[in-house]
Amino acid sequence: MTYAHLRSAIALAAALAFGSNVRAADYLIRDGDRVVFLGDSITEQRLYTTYIEAYTVTRYPQWNVTFRNVGWGGDTSWLRQRAHPDEKALFAADADQQQSMVNDAVKRGLERDVLPLRPTVVTIKFGMNDHSYQPFREDIFRAYVRSQERLVRVLQEAGARVALLTPQPIEDKRPDPDKDARNLSLRKFSDGLKDVAGKTGAVFVDQFDPYLGLMMRERAADPAAFIGGGDAVHPGPAGHTLMAWAVLKGLGADALVSQLDIDGGAQRITSAQRCKADNVKLSDGALSFDRLDDALPMPIDPRAKAALQLAPVLDELSRYELRVTGLTAEAYEVKIDGEVVGTVSRETLAKGWNLAAEAGPITRQSRSVLDLVFKKNDVFFRRWREVQLMSLPNWARNPVSEAGRRAEIAGLDRQIAEFEQQIAMARQPQAHQFVLTPAGR
C-alpha cells in the first residue's frame, strides 16, 4: 500500500473505529460535555484551563465538548465578586444565618454566570482570596467550607459533575515556603475541601501538595529558585502547566496518546496501540514506515518548557511512543515527513522513545490547536465580561444601546462558533512518514 493510499484508507478506518480505541473511562470529562471552569483570578488567567481544554480536544478529536471559563479576579467560594455579600456579617454569623447568606450568594452568582451555560462538568478553584492572605482564621474557614458545599449541591442539582480543586501554594522567594503562615492556612483550607468532596461525592483534586513538593525540592537545591514564573500568587505558563498536570491527573486523565512497536530487522509491526501503521521497509540500514494516530500529543505551551524539567508531565499525560528493536547502528536520525526531529540511541528506541514534545509536524499541529483554543477563550471572555455584563450608564440606557449590545454579543457568538469549528478540524490527526537513518550518514 502506498503512503497516499494509507492516508485515505486508514483515515476512514480510524474515524469509524475511534471510539473503541480510546480509553476514557476514568476521565471525568466525556463526549458531549459542557465544561465550565469557575474560580478566581488564577482561573481568569486562562492558562491552566486552556491547557486542560487543549489536552482534551487533542486526545479525543472526535468528541463534541465545549469549554467556558468564568473565572473572576478577587472572587471567593461565597462568590464575592458576583453576589457581594457583607463579609464581616458572613464571618460573624451563627450557623443558620451564615447558611442563609451563603445560599443567597451562591444562588445569585451561579444563576447569572454558570447555570445559563447548562454545564455538565464544573471545576471549582477557590481558596486564595478566601483565606485573605493571612494566618488561618476559623471564622473564614467555616464560611469557606459551607460555601463550597453549597456550590457543589446547587451544581449537582442542576445535573453537573463537580470537581473541587485546591489552590496552589503561594510562592514567595524564601527557602521554606512550607513554613509560610499563608501556606499553612491554605493547607488547612485544602484539607477542609477534601472533607467537602467526601461529603458531597464531588471529585477532589489536590494541587497544593504536588506543587509545594516541587517548590521544596527546588528550594533545597537553590534557595532562590522560583518555579512558577509570574508572581507569588499568579503563576506564569510554567506554573500553570504544573497546575494542569496535577489537575488532569486528579480528573483521571490518560497518559497514552499512542504506541507503535516495530521489529526493524524483520520489517514488521509487532504492536500498535491507538494508531495504525503500514509500509515498513528496511533499505541500506534505514527504516521507514507510515503512521496514523488516533490522537495528537498534548500541546505544551512554548513558554512553559521549564515545567517539563520539573515534573513528569509528558510521561504521565502525553506518551507518544515509538519502540523499534532489531536495529544495528548505535544511533539513528529520525525524520518525520522529511524533517529531522531528533537523533536517538538504539537503546532508547528499543526501550521506547516518547517524542511528544519533539515530533516536528505533529507537535506543531498540536500547538496550532492550543493557539486556536487561546483565541476562542479570549473571545468568550470579551463576550461574557466586557459585553454581556457591562453596566450601561444612565445616559446610554436606551433601546438603540441595548440593541447594539445584543448585536455585539451575537457577533462574538459567531466568532466563538467559528473558532470551535476551526479547532474541530485542526485537531484531526494526519498520516506521516517516518524515516530512521543511521546517524552520521
Topology, please?
Elements: H1 3-21, E1 34-39, H2 41-44, H3 48-59, E2 66-69, H4 80-83, H5 87-92, H6 95-113, E3 121-125, H7 138-157, E4 161-165, H8 181-200, E5 203-205, H9 208-221, H10 237-250, E6 256-263, E7 268-273, E8 275-283, E9 286-293, H11 307-310, H12 313-317, E10 319-325, E11 331-336, E12 339-345, H13 346-351, E13 353-354, H14 361-388, H15 399-426, E14 432-438
Parallel strand pairs: 1-2, 1-3, 3-4, 4-5, 6-10
Antiparallel strand pairs: 6-7, 8-9, 9-14, 10-13, 11-12, 11-14
Helix pairs in contact: 3-10, 3-14, 6-7, 7-8, 14-15
Features:
single chain, 441 residues, alpha/beta, five-stranded parallel sheet, 14 strands
How would you describe the overall organization of this protein?
The protein has 441 residues and is an alpha/beta fold. The protein has helices at 3-21, 41-44, 48-59, 80-83, 87-92, 95-113, 138-157, 181-200, 208-221, 237-250, 307-310, 313-317, 346-351, 361-388, 399-426; strands spanning 34-39, 66-69, 121-125, 161-165, 203-205, 256-263, 268-273, 275-283, 286-293, 319-325, 331-336, 339-345, 353-354, 432-438. The chain has a five-stranded parallel β-sheet, with helices on both faces. Helix 6 (95-113) crosses helix 7. The longest helix is centred in the C-terminal third of the chain and has 28 residues, at 361-388. The radius of gyration is 24 Å and the shape is globular.
